[in-house]
């Protein structure tokens, strides 16, 4: 068990008046409340970005493609790539790593075995992800989080600087690999060449009965697996950055880092946006498909910068007079983020597959994105109602119960 800090342990053993002994506990409770609010608010913020990306897979093979015709569709796809894609899942991954340190401290305070809790939590998360991928959304991220969670557990004792260096190495290696692959593709591919995707089978399956939807999910899951494995270093790097930030208690003591956060926004936001624009130009035009690999390499470096700038900007805004109410709304959604994440997939499956209205491939990107904002607004309202009446969401309750090995 990790040794407590001297400033905390000393107070616990010294005979002092009750009022003085209680004062540090009040301060700690207040700091913990702010920390939890910031973590949850960032999660609630990330939910919208994740939905805007995931819906393009769920809505059909033609959504967001340049060939879809209308200028509005192409502009919408371009903006999502530049501003959203790969940014918000990294923010979620950062928070996963940060929360890992909170869970470790919670286990330490309660005298519970952290290894057992972690094993049960990750196995439960993997099972939830498996059901999610098979039944609802083949682009599930929970199984990847669960697998990489074991790497995070193995590195739990690493110094923050070591974790940051490891994250940088992972990003550089992945970026160089993708850049080399992208340059090779550009050099060896003729202009205008590209493999035409056979989407007829997927369209028929997703518009069919529930059994055909499951079959389509399994097939698409296998097709996405290679990409998931390739981008694991990207997610692990975000995990490690979150782990380092958690050890430094960055969100618990964010006021100490306000100056740094402002500089991150001032310099990181334009740099990340430039990288996002380059990525969108490679993926969505005007550059042709040969540039896609180069755009992916640029995105490896630009997406984390923009994700951090988004997060810092939001935390600064939440500390303004007008941002306090927004913080409460976002934090409520973040407290039940796992329930909201799975509910998003359920709603999309009911709308676009044979589970419900079977609109797969029949709706353009602009109305689809508009529907995402409506869905998120509904989730914000429902989350606020839910946290006023219950300690956690239904899926969070299952995860907490399995993690602790008892009902909570």
TrEMBL record:
Keywords: Membrane, Transmembrane, Transmembrane helix. The keyword Transmembrane helix applies. The keyword S-adenosyl-L-methionine does not apply. InterPro entries: Bact_Transport_Assoc, DUF418. Residues 246-405 form the DUF418 domain. The chain crosses the membrane at residues 44-63, 75-98, 119-136, 166-187, 224-243, 264-281, 293-318, 338-358, 364-387. It comes from the Bacteria. Signal peptide: none annotated. It holds the Pfam family DUF418. PANTHER family: INNER MEMBRANE PROTEIN. This is DUF418 domain-containing protein.
């Amino acid at each position: 068990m990790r040794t407590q800090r001297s400033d905390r342990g000393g107070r616990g053993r010294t005979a002092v008046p009750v009022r003085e002994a209680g004062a540090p506990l009040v301060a700690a409770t207040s700091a913990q409340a702010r920390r939890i609010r910031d973590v949850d608010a960032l999660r609630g913020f990330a939910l919208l970005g994740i939905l805007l990306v995931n819906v393009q897979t769920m809505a059909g093979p033609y959504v967001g493609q340049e060939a879809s015709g209308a200028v509005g569709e192409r502009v919408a796809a371009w903006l999502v790539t530049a501003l959203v894609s790969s940014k918000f899942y990294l923010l979620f991954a950062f928070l996963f790593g940060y929360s890992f340190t909170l869970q470790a401290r919670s286990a330490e305070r309660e005298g519970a075995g952290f290894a057992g809790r972690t094993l049960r939590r990750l196995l439960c998360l993997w099972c939830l992800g498996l059901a999610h991928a098979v039944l609802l959304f083949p682009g599930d991220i929970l199984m990847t989080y669960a697998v990489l969670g074991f790497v995070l557990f193995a590195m739990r004792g690493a110094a923050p600087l070591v974790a940051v260096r490891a994250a940088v190495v992972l990003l550089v290696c992945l970026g160089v690999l993708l850049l080399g692959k992208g340059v090779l593709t550009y050099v060896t591919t003729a202009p205008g060449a590209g493999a035409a995707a056979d989407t007829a089978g997927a369209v028929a399956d997703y518009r069919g009965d529930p059994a055909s939807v499951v079959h389509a999910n399994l097939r698409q899951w296998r097709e996405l697996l290679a990409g998931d494995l390739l981008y694991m270093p990207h997610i692990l790097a975000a995990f490690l950055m979150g782990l380092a930030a958690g050890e430094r208690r960055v969100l618990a003591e964010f006021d100490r880092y306000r100056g740094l956060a402002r500089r991150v926004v001032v310099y990181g936001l334009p740099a990340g946006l430039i990288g996002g624009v380059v990525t969108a130009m490679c993926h969505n035009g005007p550059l042709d498909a040969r540039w896609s690999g180069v755009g992916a390499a640029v995105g490896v470096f630009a997406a984390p910068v923009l994700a951090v700038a988004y997060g810092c900007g939001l935390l600064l805004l939440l500390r303004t007079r007008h941002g306090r109410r927004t913080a409460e709304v976002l934090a409520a959604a973040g407290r039940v983020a796992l329930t909201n994440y799975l509910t998003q997939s359920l709603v999309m499956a009911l709308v676009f597959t044979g589970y419900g209205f079977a609109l797969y491939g029949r709706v353009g990107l602009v109305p689809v994105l508009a529907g995402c904002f409506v869905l998120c607004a509904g989730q914000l309202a429902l989350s606020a109602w839910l946290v006023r009446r219950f300690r956690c969401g239904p899926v969070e309750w299952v995860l907490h119960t399995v993690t602790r090995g008892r009902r909570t």
